[in-house]
Design a protein that fits this description.
single chain, about 300 residues, alpha+beta, Double-stranded beta-helix, 6-stranded mixed beta sheet, 4-stranded antiparallel beta sheet
């Protein structure tokens, strides 16, 4: 079915592209919505967040009065936008919400995984190793405490990445949409397979026609399809993410602030904790996409 994500339908694409770029936020301040209580938004607050997410697939909420380590806050925040199906991912807490903080040595498996260290995390969308039946479509990062130094995120709407790639060469989109574009090898625990290998596209469409992106910039534990077309497409995407593009927005979440999004591209700088500032971020991953009241964008990739 034709639409903006159909490479054969340039008319729909150009119309969608123009509207998308004209509405896209230009600065971090354009994404931030000040709220009184993230657990119980007013109509104006909710509409302001919806507006940002419709334009950029993300918004940053900021509350100065609700900064306690309360997991009910991101959960209830998500519910107000149709985010309810939490993904019970590996190393998440029992309630399926992860507490991202530096794990102490000798406290278990978390020390082996970068989100639980103070090391930088390269560009990615969350859950890129999940099977298609568990695609991560929505996400919330809620800051309980920031680090003494560092811990910034760069943010890029995956629809903008699609536009930049398609404008340069539609063949990049064609390659990255192949069903075996990117493979994550199995995760092993000793001699046992703890997670099977997962192959899939970078770009795909959700049932409602919205664009989904599955990506990681890591160079280990990832296998790209070995074709000239794929190598060129991956290199083009890496170049975009390494650039100083005006579409890439940098943010440092403070206590009471959070990112709510449709699983956009993001990274994280390294950081240093102190006794007073030990970084703690709640991460909620959802199988749902935010309910934004959008028209279906069904198309072929």
């Amino acid at each position: 079915m034709a639409g903006p994500f159909d490479l054969a339908d340039d008319v729909s694409y150009q119309r969608w592209r123009k509207n998308k770029l004209n509405a896209y936020p230009k600065h971090l301040e354009d994404l931030i919505v000040t709220v009184a209580d993230p657990r119980n938004l007013t109509n104006d607050e909710r509409n302001a967040i919806l507006d940002r997410c419709r334009r950029a697939n993300m918004a940053i909420y900021a509350s100065t009065t609700h900064t306690a380590a309360d997991k009910d806050l991101p959960r209830r925040m998500g519910e107000q936008f149709g985010l309810v199906a939490l993904d019970q991912n590996f190393l998440a807490d029992e309630d399926a919400i992860s507490t991202l903080t530096v794990a102490e040595e000798g406290t278990g498996q978390r020390t082996d995984f970068i989100p639980y260290t103070n090391k930088p995390i390269r560009w990615h969308s969350d859950g890129y190793y999940n099977p298609p039946t568990r695609r991560i479509c929505g996400m919330i990062l809620h800051c309980v405490q920031d680090a003494e130094r560092g811990g910034e995120n760069r943010l890029l709407d995956h629809e903008i990445a699609y536009i930049l790639l398609r404008d340069e060469n539609p063949d990049f989109i064609r390659a990255l949409s192949e069903p075996d574009a990117m493979t994550i090898p199995p995760r092993m625990e000793g001699d046992a397979e703890a997670r099977a290998a997962e192959s899939g596209p970078v770009f795909s469409l959700l049932p409602n026609g919205a664009l989904h992106m599955r990506y990681t910039a890591r160079t280990k534990s990832i296998v790209w399809k070995n074709t000239p077309e794929m190598r060129a497409a991956v290199a083009a995407l890496e170049k975009i993410l390494a650039s100083d593009s005006a579409y890439i927005i940098q943010a440092r979440l403070k206590p009471g602030m959070g990112l709510i999004c449709n699983n956009i591209l993001h990274d994280r700088t390294g950081f240093d904790d102190s006794p007073v500032h030990k970084r703690i971020v709640f991460r909620a991953r959802y199988l749902d996409r935010m309910q934004l009241g959008e028209e279906s964008k069904t198309a072929s990739l």
